[in-house]
Amino acid sequence: MVHVHQGERLGLDDLDGLYSRSGVVLTPEGIVLEINEVPPLAEAQLRREEVIGYPLAETWWWSFYPVSQAQLRTAIKRTSRGETVRFETVIHPREGLDRHLDVVVTPRRDADHHVAYLVITGIDITERKRAEAEIHALIDAIPQLVWTTQPDGFHDLFNQRWHDYTGQSTAEAQGEGWMQCLHPEDQPRVCYAWQRAVQTGGVYETEVRLRQGTTGEYRWFLARALPVRDDTGQIFKWFGTSTDIEEQKRTEQQLKESRESLSVLAETVPQLVWTTSPDGCVEYWNQRRYDYSGSSPAQALGHRWSQFLHPDDAQRTLKIWHQALAMGEPYEIEYRLKEGQTGAYRWFLTHGVPVRDEGGQIVKWFGTGTDIEEQKRTEEALRQSQEHANTLMNSNIIGIIITEGEQIVDANDTFLHMTGSTREDLRAGQMNVMPMTAPEYLARTVEAHQKLDTQQSITPYEKEYICQDGSRLPVLVGGVLFQHHPCQVINFVLDNSARKELEQRKDDFISIASHELKTPLTAVKMQTQLVRKRFEKHAQREAATALSRVERSIKQLERLIAELLDVSKIQAGGLEYVRERVDLDELLREVTATIHHLHPSHTTQVRGSVQTSLIGDRDRLGQVFTNLLSNAIKYSPDVRTVEMDLSASDDAVTIRVHDHGLGIPRELRDKIFERFYRVTDSKQKAIPGLGMGLYIVAEIVNHHGGTITVDSAVGKGSTFTVTLPLMRDA
């Protein structure tokens, strides 16, 4: 039984007044005592007597999602101990309907201050969640550095311009990671301003210096953020922009350093500048403001400036201006000013600050007006998010499909045209991702879809669709999970036919050219050897030495042609392997001896041993480690030592080749195993090579059931790690 202190009511009448909220009264153990008639009862199509007296956590709408049920149970436990708990969750009132709720669980105490019962209220924030998804989808269209945060100030999203400028990824910038780009001297001031804005819910604005990721230089930005509120007035998101004001700050610095009069200095800034007397009478406009308004001093000075305001903004602007005059505090306002020549209005952000004497008395007001027309247009673009989304779906450049599981539930005309499908096929439910996928790409497609739960997106990958007429269409596919509809994925599909055809032509050329070059090169090699032997026989050592150098060049050509042939065979699926028992220690000793002979100026330090053997192709495995050691030497032009570490477990051996050379940037590490790819660093361009070696190495290691990875730091060197299974039938 619930004991309630005299004078305290359960407040059940209040619960029925929560039109957009659900209200429930529970025992401290979570048993329902009372519930209002608004959702979730109405949406769940249940009567009150079917719920009252039963655990709330066991009801259909809470138990459908185990995570939501666990959240509720945890909240009930904490509230029964006297805490007030708030959390966001998803409930499932009935089949086909989900609701996002902002839930508050409050304890109510009896006369003895014991928790007598719990009151749960939930605000429906489903539409807010959908709005957030639309904001996320279009935020990259804004030309400034843009970011959003959660209600508590946690930074969670940044647009592409932020990434391009700072070099940070979203993961690196989230939370407080973005502060790594702040100038150290600005950090305390910025933290204080941001925390104050989050606490008060007011406008956030401050000037900061942000580091440019490529050059390391700092530029000044005007950072502004506004809270976005739901229908109840609760903040559910902060939206912020950072506008480059480097030139403005430089101008302001010039103003500070200049000894000229204020009127002369004001002419140098790019904003509209004005000053007033302490009572607000305009005394000065800079020339830029006169040029913009098309007025003269006689028309503008005094109290006549308000005639240039947009009629809809005049009352609000004058009210704020008079309040600032009365309080003596800086102010900020946005309004529209008429352009004299065209009569059009543009948005300006105006700052006004009082200038005080040594006694603290206001002697003048100084203000600037910054043109923010483009920013306001961008904000308007956000409000038109649905129109932008429809434009994307109707694009004739890129195929767009929406999937639920494997089923295609919607598609734009471009995708239907690409695959030869019709709207009737779509409406009839006859379009499924897996049957439309070529058999050899099914495993890759399944793997990509399985990563959705953890990555929330599908990394773009290549595949082929089987079209309605039976033809195959090479495509590049990627996708993103809908945040407001976790069962649906929006996918883009790019026609990859032209690129595939070009790659095939290139592969055909390489195959033909490498075969055609091999025969005459072999003849040249034989003739060179014969001539050198004749010179040696007749003691013509100088000529023999010259021919030896020619032979070394021929060997380099042989190696390049051999690698071209290997690449061609890999692309055709015809690289040949033999099966034999390979003593790895013996093989690696031979490889290091060969490397020392080819590069006598370098030393290879071998640490450890594997003392075992495996089944594989001895020559191909030798090719792997010869290539890795050669690369280590090639990319360490200023270091004379490379290292090889050997170790073994019961089922695998590991060989690590480490150098202290140029290193590889993080974002390029996966690309180095692609054929013909070479790092574009200026230092590495000077090192000869066609970018085939690591591509062949990766193919040989993969064929033997092994793996190859790289760990590297620019300027500190690289470590390539090869792991091979023991006694594997290759």
TrEMBL record:
Residues 131-201, 258-328 form the PAS domain. Keywords: Coiled coil, Kinase, Phosphoprotein, Transferase, Two-component regulatory system. Its EC number is 2.7.13.3. It catalyses: ATP + protein L-histidine = ADP + protein N-phospho-L-histidine. It comes from the Bacteria. Residues 512-728 form the Histidine kinase domain. The keyword Phosphoprotein applies. SUPFAM superfamilies: ATPase domain of HSP90 chaperone/DNA topoisomerase II/histidine kinase (SSF55874), Homodimeric domain of signal transducing histidine kinase (SSF47384), PYP-like sensor domain (PAS domain) (SSF55785). GO terms for molecular function: phosphorelay sensor kinase activity. Residues 540-567 form a coiled coil. Residues 85-137, 204-257, 331-384 form the PAC domain. InterPro entries: HATPase_C_sf (IPR036890), HATPase_dom (IPR003594), His_kinase_dom (IPR005467), HisK_dim/P_dom (IPR003661), HisK_dim/P_sf (IPR036097), PAC (IPR001610), PAS (IPR000014), PAS-assoc_C (IPR000700). NCBIfam families: sensory_box. This is histidine kinase.
